[in-house]
Amino acid sequence: MKIRIKGNSVRYRLTKSEVATFSEKGYLEEKTIFPTQTLIYALQAKTAIDNLAADFSENVITLFFPESEKVKWQESNQVGYQNNFVLPNGDTLFLLIEKDFVCLDNTDEDQSDNYDNPNSVC
Q1: Is residue 121 part of a domain?
Q2: Predicted model pTM
Q3: Is residue 27 part of a domain?
Q4: Cα gap 120→122, rounded to integer Å
Q5: Which SS3 state, helix, strand or coil, does residue 93 take?
Q6: DSSP 60-95
Q7: By the 8 A CB rule, do 52 and 63 touch?
Q8: How far is the C-alpha of 23 from the C-alpha of 73, rounded, in Å?
Q9: pLDDT digits (tens, 9 = 90+) for 19-67
Q10: Residue 69's domain is classified under what CATH number?
């Protein structure tokens, strides 16, 4: 699972096996270890929500995903989900969770578990 944070937006990208694990277990996390602390970012299925939501507590960024959608997402061609999550102070946090596609340009990154890119001409 990859994370991208820019301004007031958070995006996760998941490979095929990560989407499958999340669909089965309802939870997925990654860790980035720093000298003094560890940053954890997680995706968690949650009941009683219709859109993506988020929280940041004790060095853990958690994006919440509607429980009712987790199996559907794996079985469908739907690329992802997004939401402008309204914060208690009225600001919004843009959330995006999407399937990770094979890059069209050259990269040294292992992409064997990524989804086929619909824009490739193979």
Answers
A1: no
A2: 0.83
A3: yes
A4: 6
A5: strand
A6: EEEEEEEGGGHHHHHHS---EEEEEEEPTTS-EEEE
A7: yes
A8: 8
A9: 999 999 999 999 999 999 999 999 999 999 999 999 999 999 999 999 9
A10: 3.30.1360
Q: What is the per-residue pLDDT for 98?
A: 93
82-91 in b/e form (b: 16+ CB < 10 A) is: ebebeeeeee
Q: Which amino acid is at 41?
A: Y
Instruction: Determine phi and psi for 95, rounding to 5 degrees.
Output: -120, 135
What SS3 state is found at 8? Answer: coil
Do the bridges between strand 60-66 and strand 38-46 make them parallel or antiparallel, or are there none, so unpaired? Answer: parallel
Q: Distance (Å, rounded) from C-alpha 122 to C-alpha 118?
A: 10
Residues 12, 3 contacting (CB under 8 angstroms): yes
Residue span of the structural domain in which 58 resides: 2-99
Domain count, the chain: 1
Phi and psi, residue 80, nearest 5°:
-170, -170
